[in-house]
Every structure is written in structure tokens, then in C-alpha cells.
Amino acid sequence: MSILVVGSFMMDCVTRTPQAPQAGETITGISYKNYPGGKGANQAVAARRMGAEVIMAGMVGNDSYGETFINIMKNAGIDIKNIKKTNNASTGIGSITLEENGQNRIIIVPGANYEYSVADLMTLEDCIKEVDIVLTQLELREEITEKLAELCQLHKKIFILNPAPARSLSDKVLKAVSILTPNETELQLLTGMKLSSMKDYVKGARLLCNAGVKTVVVTLGDKGCLFVNLNKEIHLPGYKVPVVDTTGAGDSFTGSLAASIDSGLDIRKSIKIANAVGALTIQKNGAIPSLPDKDEVLAFMNLNSKV
Ligand code: RIB
């Protein structure tokens, strides 16, 4: 059993501040630090820390951040043979403003991630044939998502797509997706609907199921998560935990969801675990440094077994 993650690397440049500045305003921040992130790298490490065999594919720059990422992936026990280096651009960057309440605002500069081409992707076809699950996000070029969807359909793979950062998806991609994991904002963009209640989210998710997505799992922050397919819906409430930094919470959810499904757990048990993983992630700073391992998750779930 194994998971192929085709995705991004971004070095997060995080400024903690009492609140984000208004346009034209200068304010004094609290602290500044770099943390490794990027939705692809975050989801790969999240899945690995939950015990999955993970292969990561993507592109970093031929620079110190690129080297840092390769070491992080290697030390996490992830297969790094398909991580490429380019001289044409620097490793991607995430510029993050983090407010004291843990909420963030993120601007990514993809850099090397946008050098990853369809030709690079095609070198993965044999690997795609061998893995059980293919997981991706939307931080690589659009044509990568399109081609990957096509390959997953051709080779009948479980294709998990975290549609972030939000952009609309073609009919071809929607039809290929086994599990889509949008948050509320991404669900609104994908459906073109204004959504504000649980009933709305079910309606929006079902619209995507009617377009061909097999299962939609909406991440709802402190409201937990919502599973929807054509026949049923399940809402799991969120854990009440202290929020330090929400960066990477959605990624930890999707990465661990992929790991649980890969290990043979059913979707209900898998989203229950992913919900706990998300709740642990927001209690620490940074993206990759905040991702919990399996033992922490099991201990947390035992302590909070009523949720
Ligand atoms: O989802 C969080 C991630 O989004 C951050 O690590 C940042 O790099 C952006 O990709």
C-alpha cells in the first residue's frame, strides 16, 4: 500500500502580528520565522507521520531552501527519487501573516513549483500504476492537475484532490476525483453558491457529486468536517482546543485521511482520525513542524473520546 503525492514545496516566511495591517498602514509585528510548508509537502509528511508509505514528486530550486526540503522529506522516511531540482527558479515561498488568534493570510510565490511540467509528470506513469492512492493540490500548474486526473482515471487509482488554493475545476477533473477535500471558501468557489449553513454545505457538496466527484469531505474549521456522497451525509463536530496557528490544518486533515484510507480503514473512521489530526496541528506553530505522528493522534483521541 502506498501514496504518491504530486505537489508543492513552499518555505513559509511567517510574521506573527496582533492583527493584519490595513492597506497603507505600517504596524509592529511580534516575531518572524521560517517554517517548511507548501500544501504538497505538508500533506506528504502528514500521511507519512500517520504511518503511510509515501512517494513525493515535485520541484524545488537549486538553492538552500530546496536542499532543506529534500533533507526534511528524506528524514521523514519519504521516497525522494521523484523530487526534481531546477536552476530556472527559486524554491517556492509562502508569505504568511499570522494573527494572534491563529488565523492566517497567505500569499504564495510558486517559483520552482511552476517549473514542474507535464513531461516531468509523465515520468511518473509507472509509479502511478504501482501506488494505491494519488494525492494532489492546486499549487502546481493547472495542466498538471488535468493530466494527473487523466492518468488516475486510466489506471483506476484512488485520486484525492485538495482543491487549494481555490480555482475552478474542469468536468474532466471532477469526474476523476475519488475524494475532494475543500474548505468552506473553496466549496463556495467550486459551486458558485453562497454557502453559510450545514444544509448549504451539503447542497454544495452534492452538486459536485452530481458532477462526478465520488465523495466530498468539507473541512469546517472549529465546526469539524462534513462527509457527503450521493446517498448520505455525516457531520463530525470539531474538537475544542486552543488555537496557536491554523497553517497546515487542512493539509494535515487531507494527508492523514489519505493515510487512513490507504491502511484499509473505512471513510467514517478515516475522517474521525483526520479531524483529530487537524485539531492537533493547530495547537503548534508552523506547517510541517506542527504535524502530529500516529501515537500523538491516538493518545489525543483516547483523551477526547466523547467527540
Ligand atoms: O496550507 C498551508 C500552506 O499553504 C502553507 O504551508 C503555505 O506554504 C501554503 O502553501
Q: What can you see in these coordinates?
A:
The model has no long low-confidence stretch (mean pLDDT 97). With 307 residues, this protein is of the alpha/beta class. Strands 5-4-1-8-9-10-11-12-13 form a 9-stranded mixed beta sheet, with helices on both faces. Strands 3-2-6-7 form a 4-stranded mixed beta sheet. The chain has 11 helices and 13 strands. It has one domain (3-9, 38-91, 113-303): UDP-N-acetylmuramoyl-L-alanine:D-glutamate ligase, CATH 3.40.1190. Helix 7 packs across helix 8 (198-210). Alpha-D-ribofuranose is lined by residues 10, 12, 37-39, 42, 94, 106, 108, 139, 247-248, 250-251, 287.
Summarize this entry quickly.
The chain has 307 residues and is α/β, with parallel strands linked by helices. It contains eleven helices and 13 strands.
Topology, element by element:
Elements (H helix, E strand, L loop, with lengths): L2 E4 L3 E8 L13 E7 L1 H11 L4 E8 L2 H13 L2 E8 L5 E8 L4 E6 L8 H5 L2 H6 L2 E4 L5 H13 L3 E4 L9 H6 L2 E2 L3 H8 L6 H13 L4 E5 L5 E4 L4 E4 L12 H14 L4 H15 L12 H10 L4
Parallel strand pairs: 1-4, 1-8, 2-6, 4-5, 8-9, 9-10, 10-11
Antiparallel strand pairs: 2-3, 6-7, 11-12, 12-13
